[in-house]
Design brief:
mainly beta; 11 strands; 50% strand; seven-stranded mixed beta sheet; four-stranded antiparallel beta sheet
Length: 123
């Protein structure tokens, strides 16, 4: 399966962006999907995950209340709505498909990675 993330760009602090992740080659409707990010000079970190039916979501503390992950299995797409963006949200964002139906912050559970999309938040 190939994952493609898009929707990144330049936004001012306090603004919003919506990232999308689509899968080709096979569906990921039976798998959890997550978003990770890597800021300049930092290690990649977990952002959010959503279970295969969308009933269970997890967020890292720094984005709780600002980011919302959702999915549309009919469209084979997962979204990350990012509101109230801060300069520290600047990073390359990667979507990832987990091997299981439920995701977590652990990268070891990821089966496939997508190419990233750059989000730049200006202060």
């Amino acid at each position: 399966v190939q994952l493609q993330a898009f929707g990144g760009g330049l936004v001012q602090a306090g603004g919003s962006l919506r990232l999308s992740c689509t899968a080709s080659g096979r569906t990921f409707s039976n798998n959890a999907v997550g978003w990770f990010r890597q800021a300049p000079g930092k290690e990649r970190e977990f952002v959010a995950s959503i279970s295969w039916r969308g009933g269970t979501t997890h967020y890292t503390d720094s984005v709780k209340g600002r980011f919302t992950i959702s999915r549309d299995n009919a469209k084979n797409t997962v979204y990350l709505q990012m509101d109230s963006l801060k300069a520290e949200d600047t990073a390359v964002y990667y979507c990832a498909s987990y091997r299981s139906s439920y995701g977590s912050w652990l990268e070891s559970g990821v089966g496939y990675w997508g190419k990233g999309t750059l989000v730049t938040v200006s202060s």
